[in-house]
Amino acid sequence: MQKGAYKTPALQELQRDIMSLAVETKKLLLECIADSIHATTHDFLFALQEAHDRKLGIEVTVDGVNIAAESDGLQGELFGDNGWVAKYSKYPNVFDGR
To answer: Distance between CA atoms of 26 and 67, rounded to whole angstroms?
Structure first.
């Protein structure tokens, strides 16, 4: 949206508004969005781990492996130098672990 790349009519006004923002405001907006995504991912992974630990029947498997069973805390695997955010995020430095 910052580059005006979307052609969907429903996004044109929002895209124009974002493109017209000052650089510092765009940076703040990006930080808010990235922080929201990281916080939501953390909460989702925490819920998956808790469901596994409490045997509530909610499980995620990858290649036949239960991801919560392989971890002592999925939500914690997001953080740190070797965490998922550092490895896979386009914006790894935005989230400060709050």
So the answer is: 36
Q: Are the C-beta atoms of residues 71 and 77 closer than 8 Å to each other?
A: yes
Rounded to 10 degrees, what is the CA torsion of 45, 47, 95, 66? -10
Contact 78, 38 (CB under 8 A): yes
How many C-beta neighbours within 10 Å does residue 38 have?
22
62, two tokens:
């990858």
- DSSP string of 41-74, one letter each residue: HHHHHHHHHHHHHTT-S---EETTEETTTT-S-G
The set of residues, in sequence order, having a beta carbon less than 8 Å from that of 18 and lying 6+ positions away, is 1, 2, 26, 29
d(CA 27, CA 33): 10
pLDDT (tens digit per residue) in 6-60: 999 999 999 999 999 999 999 899 889 888 988 898 899 999 999 999 999 899 9
